[in-house]
Design a protein that fits this description.
single chain, about 375 residues, Rossmann fold, four-stranded parallel sheet, 12 helices, elongated, disordered N terminus, Peripla_BP_I, Leucine-binding protein domain-containing protein, BCAA_transport, Leu-bd
Length: about 375
Amino acid sequence: MLRSMLGVCLAVQLCAAPALAADINVGIILSATGPAAAIGNAERNGTLFGPTEIAGKKVNYLFLDEASDSTAAVAALRKLYQESKIDILVGPTSTPGSFAAIDPAVEYRLPMITLAPVNALVAPVDARRRWIFKTTTNDDHEATPLFANMRKTGVKKLALIGFGDSYGDAWSKVSADMCAAAGIELVADEKYARTDTTVVGQILKIIAARPDAVLIAASGAPAALPLLQLREKGYEGQIYGTLGATFGDFRKLTGVQGDGIFVPLSPAVGAASFPDDYPAKKAALEFIQRYEAKFGPGSRNIFAGSAYDALLLIERAVPAALKAGEPGTAEFREGLRSAIEGLKGVAGSRGVYNYAPNDHTGLDQSALTLGKLDKGEWIAAR
């Protein structure tokens, strides 16, 4: 069992003695417990593939649990920096934890690669956000292929049902904006808790609004609930999902009822069905092969891919950073920050990363395509 964030600092890959000053120390803060634990543990699995040595320097991966709590995330960061002098941080998992971690990261002049999706964490790049990067796509990246398909298929009325938290709220905003731009009427916007066991009341309101399509803004197993109850109540219109539906037990829980749902698809999940000329296809297939060899067929997921890619970026940035200073120094941390900011054309599991002084998002619209669930498999829609 993973220890709490106040427990012993664990090396993800190395069961080693305390690091020497010349070692590269990578801090990893993820949600091993709490509401975001399923995501955080998938991300932790993704960190197990990082290199043990880069440019002749030993690499130590030091893990603490943020427990899906922003206060714990800040305490974990301070502990890792003060006790282990980490050179860079991967995480936190959660959006609140990532926002909270910005202040201490800036204080320590510590580069941070957050695994949270909200673009406000990294944009606009200013004196504070110059230290923050991410390996996830934005909500508008996800929405674009979905709404393009809605326009193509003649959707005029859309209903939304999503989590009653910041995730669902973000999708309420992006859906309203996209509907306005596409000339689609948003006829319902319902919310539910991740722990709810029924959404019948919300589904009845949606059906009464007679939408041409329904968008489910949820992730993992809880995303299955609205779909199953829509079908149970006889809804025959098109159903769309967000990227989070490609994670966890959604496929298992929905079975044949889930077939045909459209989603934004990442190469970390569906690379085999991407065109051969897709720039990140080879890298994504390598991730899938390595990950599923360790964790089993069908285990690949976007969250593990985000963490896997974060370590890939660090591996690419270290050689240049070593020219600025030795690990454990402010010069090395600034060197890492500058080197990541200059990375171009890095193919990872989730797409091709291109950073710039005014862009710390890394991924763009090309990281996602329209996908669908077909006979229990996530594939690119043709």
